[in-house]
Write a structure and sequence with these properties.
19 strands, alpha+beta, 9 helices, 5-stranded antiparallel β-sheet
Length: 379
C-alpha cells in the first residue's frame, strides 16, 4: 500500500521523493519582489491550497509552477525533473483558470477534447475519454451544448474536465470558484474535493477564501508579501497559528494586549491570564498579546475551572443563524473587549441578552501568545 503524503519512511524504506519541489524561488517585476526566496515541497496525491490576500504572491507562484511566468531565480522540480526553464506545453499539468477560458465557439465535447485532438489521439479514444470525463463531472449528455447555454457551475465542470482530459500528473486551480454564488460554490468545492480523492491527483489551488482552504486542502500554504508565513494542515493552521498575521487572517481572533508578570502569567487589565510558555520565550515585563478564538470562550461547566475564570458583561449581540456573536466587556479598568461565539442552545439555556453578566473561562490550551511588536497584529 502506498504511503500517505508526508509520512516518514519506516525501516529500510527510502523516504518518499516530493512530487513537486520548489527551491528558493524569487520572482521580480522590475524593483517589485513578488516572490521572495520561496521553498516548498508537495507530495504526490496531496491537495494543497495557496492562501492569502490579493498581492501576496500566491498566483505568481502558481504561474511559476506552470511555466506561465518564469521565476527570476531558484529552481522547480517535478518528480525529480528540473522544469525551471521548461515551457508550459512540456510540463505535466492541467489548469483551470478563474475565468474558465472556454472556447465560446466550440461545443462542450470539443472544448473537453481540445488537448487530446492536438496530441493526435484517435477519434474513438477521444470520444470515449470525453464521455468518461463528462460523466465524471456530472455533465453526461451535454456534449453538444455551447458554453453560453451552461450555468457558471456547469462551465466550471467543463473547464475541469478539459484540464483532466490528457491525464496530467498535476492539477492547477486558479481561484476556480470565485465567480460563483455562495450556494453553488459550497456544492462544487465538495464535488471537486471528492473528484480529487477519486483520481488521487496532486492538486494545487490558489484562493483568498479561507473557508475553501479549510474545507478542501490537505495542507494550506499561507502567504504574505511574497513569502510563506506557515504551512500545515487546516487544523494546525487554525489552532496553532505561528504568527499574529496567520491568527488574524484565518478565522476570527481576539487580541488582548497585556504584560508578562511572571513566567506563564499575563496581566490584561485586572485579569491574570495563565498561559503556556514551555520555551520560556517571554520574560517579566514583556508587552504581549494573548489570542483566543471566539468559539473557545467557555461558559458551560465552569465549576471545575481553577484558572482564567472571569466575570464579564454582554455589550452587544449579533444573530448569525446557528450561533450568536457576543461582544463582551473585559472590565476591571481595561478598555479591552472581546467577541465570543455562543450556540443558539446556550443563548436560550442561559437567557443571554445585552447587559447580561456572566462568568467565562479561557482554556489554556486554546491560548496563543505573541510579542506585541510581532508583525500582523491588528491596529
Amino acid at each position: 500500500m502506498a504511503r500517505k503524503p508526508g509520512r516518514k519512511a519506516a525501516g529500510n524504506e527510502q523516504p518518499q521523493q516530493p512530487f513537486l519541489e520548489i527551491r528558493n524561488v524569487t520572482k521580480k517585476f522590475g524593483d517589485f519582489v513578488a516572490l521572495d526566496d520561496v521553498s516548498l515541497e508537495i507530495h504526490e496525491g496531496e491537495f494543497v491550497c495557496f492562501l492569502g490576500p490579493s498581492g501576496c504572491g500566491k498566483t505568481t507562484l502558481l504561474r511559476a509552477i506552470a511555466g506561465l511566468d518564469f521565476q527570476t531565480s531558484g529552481r522547480i522540480y517535478q518528480r525529480g525533473r528540473d522544469i525551471s526553464d521548461v515551457p508550459p506545453a512540456d510540463r505535466d499539468f492541467g489548469i483551470v483558470f478563474q475565468s474558465y477560458a472556454l472556447f465560446p465557439n466550440l461545443t462542450v465535447e470539443r472544448n473537453v477534447s481540445y488537448g487530446l485532438v492536438n496530441r493526435k489521439v484517435g477519434r474513438k479514444a477521444v470520444n470515449d475519454r470525453v464521455e468518461e470525463l463528462l460523466t465524471l463531472v456530472g455533465l453526461a449528455g451535454s456534449g453538444d451544448k455551447y458554453p453560453a447555454a451552461l450555468s457558471g457551475g456547469q462551465q466550471q465542470r467543463v473547464a475541469l474536465a478539459r484540464a483532466l482530459a490528457t491525464s496530467p500528473g498535476m492539477l492547477l486551480l486558479d481561484e476556480p470558484l470565485s465567480a460563483l454564488d455562495a450556494k453553488v460554490r459550497e456544492r462544487l468545492r465538495h464535488e471537486m474535493k471528492e473528484l480529487q480523492r477519486t483520481l488521487d491527483i496532486t492538486t494545487i489551488m490558489v484562493t483568498h477564501d479561507q473557508e475553501e482552504a479549510l474545507t478542501m486542502a490537505d495542507r494550506i500554504v499561507v502567504m504574505s508579501d511574497g513569502r510563506i508565513e506557515q504551512v500545515g494542515s487546516p487544523v494546525e493552521i487554525y489552532r496553532h497559528p505561528v504568527s499574529p498575521y496567520v491568527a488574524d487572517f484565518i478565522g476570527a481572533m481576539n487580541f488582548l494586549h497585556g504584560k508578562v508578570m511572571r513566567k506563564g502569567h499575563v496581566k490584561v487589565g485586572k485579569m491574570d491570564i495563565a498561559v503556556e510558555d514551555h520555551t520560556g520565550q517571554f520574560k517579566k515585563g514583556d508587552q504581549v498579546v494573548v489570542c483566543i478564538r471566539p468559539e473557545c470562550v467557555a461558559v458551560r461547566d465552569l465549576g471545575r475551572v481553577k484558572t482564567n475564570r472571569y466575570a464579564m458583561a454582554i455589550r452587544d449581540i449579533e444573530f448569525l443563524g446557528s450561533y450568536c456573536r457576543a461582544t463582551l466587556a473585559v472590565g476591571g479598568g481595561s478598555d479591552e473587549e472581546l467577541i465570543a461565539d455562543f450556540s443558539i442552545n446556550l443563548m436560550r439555556d442561559y437567557k443571554l441578552e445585552r447587559g447580561t453578566k456572566l462568568n467565562v473561562a479561557f482554556p489554556k490550551d486554546c491560548l496563543e501568545v505573541y510579542h506585541s511588536d510581532a508583525r500582523g497584529i491588528p491596529a
